[in-house]
Prior knowledge:
homodimer, alpha/beta, Alpha/beta knot, globular, six-stranded parallel sheet, two-stranded antiparallel sheet, 185 residues
Amino acid sequence: xxxxxxxxxxxxxxxxxxxxxxxxxxxxLHDLARLARTYGVERFYVINPLIDQxxxxxxxxxxxxxxxxxxxxxxxxxxxxxxAVVATLEEAxxxxxxxxGTAPIxxxxxxxxxxxxxxxxxxxxxIAMSHRTVxxxxxxxxxxxRELIRDADYLLEPILGVSGYNHLSVRTAAAITLDRLFxxx
Amino acid sequence: xxxxxxxxxxxxxxxxxxxxxxxxxxxxLHDLARLARTYGVERFYVINPLIDQxxxxxxxxxxxxxxxxxxxxxxxxxxxxxxAVVATLEEAxxxxxxxxGTAPIxxxxxxxxxxxxxxxxxxxxxIAMSHRTVxxxxxxxxxxxRELIRDADYLLEPILGVSGYNHLSVRTAAAITLDRLFxxx
Lengths: 185, 185
């Protein structure tokens, strides 16, 4: 069950529903890298088409993997070393295909429940248990573009709390998603 | 099942195991407030004994509840209005007692598994379902002080991923904890 996660900064919506490139958020990289390390993720793709944003993400990674951060905090180094910075989803898929010998099954996530037919967490857990390669995608800003969700193999059901309120940060939504899919307690 | 959460900035450990007061992190307030709103939390206590840190937390809250942020984002307003800033855990408990007519059952959380006997998530879920008042405590920095855990009624079992690595951010750990205790899907 090699599985991968991707954090998309394009194509995503802004507040007005326009497609934009979102900016790298430092704590997203830290929180998702630590989650990745906790839940046994092979690699965490930070996906952003802008060169300066890729550079920023790479500088953050380097600081913790081979810079002063690595001496300061070995646990963080282990987590941050799972980050790979790429320009596009296609690039991430190509890398995974090269490493695993097969293209990953693409699983999109979204907070809304009007973006297409969804599958339950148990379904994706089942796929992962069957030793197939899976790439789970998380959108930043106001969520990933519809065409990307349509092109994915599956769309996970949204996280329901108790209130109908579904405005979690991508950090906490990713935490809940990975825990539901892969926790052992 | 009225339940409350508290984010402790004292007494917590630093990296060297000394007891310190930690600083307010802006995104902790946002992420935990949004989680609180999602999972039906009555109130989210931000606990910090330093006046300037309390002021900072109150300014952040005000911006989103009654300032420009409230006009900009009503969803965030709903979440941030759940924040209450207090100096001590005792103050939070006193407020809850006044509101609910009973002191809350204190549930501590910790990433380590050497801090005392733990209870499973199902146990705390059972308490909450039995309509008792619960306050779940999250520590910042390197975790809450042992004496605080000892004084709590229960200590939740740590979050196990698949790897033995247990260095999540308090944001993602709180997300997983609340989802395990209160999710409906």
